């Protein structure tokens, strides 16, 4: 090898850029994108389970609200837990563990014959999947050179859209089959099979991810220089087809360290890190760093934005199929009569007949249409994010849905409801992905997943709050939750104005 091309004590940006950009990055995008797709399935799966399972569990609207809140409660408690572990013990290991927990608990929920047991396993499934959602963007972003990072992270939105489309298609293929098996301790219906099928990807993705390396940026941060360099050599070989020994970087430049999570961790023994008291102490130190300058402003803004955005997005996404179902029932009973979301709920509440678990095919079709409406915006984000900037997408994709959410109160038929639902989903889903992209750049490696986890905790708290009040008020005074979520979205859009434009500098 020509010694003129060798580099000693290279910066990480130089090292990651020298690996090239090719097959390794595309493979990593595929597995991370499918993990993000899987989170779309797992988070919104109950939107189709509710209409199908309400007869088996004899659920009222408030019971359905509690059930949709169960995975959100798990996410509230799990977000910070997984984020702490990912910053202390590494991205890959924790990501695999969260996927396995989600898959196993999802499978267990599919054969749960009682409402409390089903509720418990969906809570644990939510606890697991939130780890995958909080870590996958940081894991993917830490393999990317600055030139490609923002665009690669933006392509993740397309996988989320694929998940939103795939979920109703899977439900449409399985739930109407009306499969039924019942014994003393086990009851399996078609919706149980649907839940089981949606749990399989988490297990398969955990196995696939085990073939990928730990983040080289994280390894560098925890002073594992040789391991980080070995990962970079493998990336170089996969991308270029050259032997790993041809990689031109000989050594990596050590970072100057101040008070950080990693300096805290590196001064502890392995035994101490495994000790609960030491772990909690480390978590507390990490949290204090996030709440102090220079990170305090970014931490506060992202937490408040996540609360407002997530409360509106996940609440409406969980309840859209149920609202379509109610519109379909009302229009079948009162053909040609205009109505609204509030009126259709109150009329059906007063006119409850025998419980009917059948979901009309229009509900599946409408949800697929909502997913398809996201395809243009899924391409718009990665193709234009470098030109328009992340701040533009955040403000636009929160302000407009805020107005659209208010407009849901004024719809007069199912078609108007569908159109507004499409606009709402197409833009808010872009907002969700853009927030994750922004978080990767706002915080340094040693705090990145922790900061994302803290903001996710606030976001899932908003989703939990939203599902509880929506399920309770939709049959009593639906104007209040609609206005509340509209204000939350508009407020989050306003707060985005105070965020910096990201994606232009190398990762810290």
The level of helicity is over 70%
Structure class = mainly alpha
The biggest sheet, with number of strands, parallel, antiparallel or mixed sense and barrel status, is: 2 strands, antiparallel
- Summed over residues and divided by their number, the pLDDT gives a mean of 82
Low-pLDDT runs of 5+ residues are 1-5, 257-274
Q: What is the H-and-E element order?
A: HHHHHHHHEEHHHHHHHHHHHHH
Strand order of the largest sheet: 1-2
| Count of helix runs | 21
Radius of gyration: 23 Å
Strand content: under 5%
Number of strands: 2
What does this structure look like?
This protein is mainly alpha-helical. The chain is 75% helix and 1% strand. It has 21 helices and 2 strands. It has helices at residues 12-17, 23-44, 46-57, 61-89, 91-110, 115-141, 146-154, 156-174, 190-209, 216-221, 225-240, 261-266, 270-274, 276-290, 296-333, 341-350, 361-388, 390-407, 414-442, 445-473, 479-496, and strands spanning 180-182, 187-189. The protein has a two-stranded antiparallel sheet. Strand 1 and strand 2 (187-189) form a beta hairpin. The longest helix has 38 residues, at 296-333. Mean pLDDT is 82; it is low at 1-5 and 257-274.
